[in-house]
Amino acid sequence: MIKLHQVSKSFSQFHAIKSVSLTINKGEIHGIIGASGAGKSTLLRLMNLLEIPDEGEVEVNGQRLTNLNSKALRQARKSIGMIFQHFNLVANKTVYENVAVSLELAKFPKRERRNRVIECLRFVGLDGLMEKYPAQLSGGQKQRVAIARALANNPQVLLCDEPTSSLDPNTTGEVLGVLENINKSFGVTIVIVSHEMEVVKSICNHATVMAAGEIYETVVIDPSGIQQIDNSPKYFINQLTEAGDMSHA
Ligand SMILES: Nc1ncnc2c1ncn2[C@@H]1O[C@H](COP(=O)(O)OP(=O)(O)OP(=O)(O)O)[C@@H](O)[C@H]1O
């Protein structure tokens, strides 16, 4: 569970987040949507204290993060994974090494690391690409490595900052499918910041609309499901000609 209580954050004189309170219950897939500059990413980064609030309290998994010293905060963050729009993989490390690094940092028992890395890569469908480097992967595959890395330490919460905004519709579906699977299989609470309405509508069961640093409203929604993309040339022609009834040149 994530609880923000009257949280505020300013950058110089600019009030990016204005006394926001929000509760996200365990097991939710919670979307945060709104116009550019509304404060979505800042709100997400306040949930793991990547941004330190000027005022207010942040509680995650029953722990008040805003009360913890830096050592305790590092420990608490192990149960909060995060993924980013631009994946943030280490370019000169292999897929395997990118995931292993997060276990090393968390001092995960050495003998169990290899099995855990493989288990996580298998979960995201990339155990066949362990020796590749990020530059050899598609955008969707890179994001799946980032998800495996975030998953490695068994987080209870996964924070996703524009996770599909660098991806085409096909790979967007692939990444959303993995996120949904993580939620269903392990009960991980997922928060997704996105400016893409279709993304929020497809897998989120709750959504918060932000405007000018405040919450406009939080609504319960019935996820519409992930759009299956047809990559056939016929599909593209049908889309271009709407009903597919235009004569071909
Ligand atoms: N580190 C920072 N220093 C100064 N201003 C910042 C910083 N981070 C965010 N801001 C400002 O705070 C406001 C909210 O930014 P934020 O990135 O949270 O918005 P957003 O809703 O996620 O927008 P976008 O969809 O464009 O990323 C913006 O005006 C932004 O310029």
TrEMBL record:
GO terms for molecular function: ATP binding. PROSITE patterns: ABC_TRANSPORTER_1 (PS00211), ABC_TRANSPORTER_2 (PS50893). SUPFAM superfamilies: P-loop containing nucleoside triphosphate hydrolases. Residues 2-237 form the ABC transporter domain. Transmembrane segments: none annotated. Gene3D superfamilies: P-loop containing nucleotide triphosphate hydrolases (3.40.50.300). This is Methionine ABC transporter ATP-binding protein. The lineage of its organism: Bacteria, Bacillati, Bacillota, Bacilli, Bacillales. Keywords: Amino-acid transport, ATP-binding, Cell membrane, Membrane, Nucleotide-binding, Translocase, Transport.
